[in-house]
Amino acid sequence: MVERIATCRCEQLQAVCSGEPVRVSVCHCLDCQKRSGSAFAAQARFPAECVTVTGETTIWSVVGESGARADFRFCPCCGATVVYASTAMPGVIAVAVGAFADPGFPPPAFSGYEERRHPWAVIAGDTIEHFD
Fold it and tell me: Can you give the pLDDT at residue 76?
């Protein structure tokens, strides 16, 4: 079984993920743009029992546009968000794809909130599901 490790910038917070993600997606919503500091956020979702988080975290909770609450766990030292969970997908942990620092990570299959997509940010591929 494949094991991947995601870390924050200072590496004191890590998420060890066993197996393949059940979903890899990008989100163009304004909240994800603010959270990631980029034009979109990329995340991989794993069953909660397949993710082990170690290190100190600070949790910030927010109710998003969908009405679901998300609990973001970030490093109190370097500020990087590594994992989050949402009431919209119980039993699933989302891990920031960039925290794996692996250009060979599986590509996204979903691209959401595309009505807020920056025109130059194109998520390409024949198998990607696009939705607003």
Answer: 97
pLDDT in tens, 36-94: 999 999 999 999 999 999 999 999 999 987 789 999 999 999 999 999 999 999 999 99
Written out in words, the top-level CATH class of the domain with range 3-114 is: mainly beta
pLDDT of 128 higher than 90:
no
Which residues fall within 8 angstroms of residue 36, CB to CB, at 6 or more apart? Answer: 81, 96, 98
Give the Cα separation of 98 and 57 in Å (integer). 18
pTM of the model: 0.92
DSSP class of 34: H
Q: Which two tokens stand for residue 45?
A: 């979702």
Query: How many degrees, rounded to 5, is the angle at CA 117 between CA 61 and CA 32?
Result: 15
* Structural domain spans, the chain: 3-114
User: Which residues, in sequence order, are CB contacts of 131 under 8 Å at separation 6+?
Assistant: 110, 111, 112, 114
Q: Going by DSSP bridges, is the β-strand pair 110-112/23-27 parallel, antiparallel, or unpaired? A: parallel
